[in-house]
From TrEMBL:
Protein name, entry field: Uncharacterized protein
Organism: Halarcobacter anaerophilus
Highest rank taxon of the organism: Bacteria
């Protein structure tokens, strides 16, 4: 299995899993796109959502703030939310270099 296949597999699990232990593990991934996909998953619990709310990558923390399981508020008004940060595209098909936004 190639690294790219492994990444796609992890992204699929990050989006689709309802296993909280698996999601807890995936939310600690070094890959920003995997953490961002976990932040979008409606099956995460509030601990994961709240943890991702303070992820060092704004793309991840912003998506976590939108998850209904997030129980902490974070004010993003002092931060420039670029089109990349608010992008709703599926990370499995994301090609930022080809983005025309």
């Amino acid at each position: 299995m190639s690294a790219a296949d492994s990444l796609i597999e992890q992204l699929n699990r990050a989006f689709e899993s309802d296993n909280i232990d698996e999601l807890r593990s995936l939310h600690e991934s070094p890959d920003m796109n995997i953490r961002r996909a976990v932040a979008k998953n409606s099956n995460i619990d509030s601990d994961i959502a709240n943890d991702l709310l303070y992820d060092p990558v704004l793309n991840v923390s912003y998506m976590a703030s939108l998850n209904p399981k997030c129980t902490i508020s974070r004010n993003f008004c002092n931060v420039k939310l670029t089109k990349c940060v608010v992008c709703k595209k599926d990370e499995r098909n994301l090609d930022c270099l080809e983005c025309n936004k």
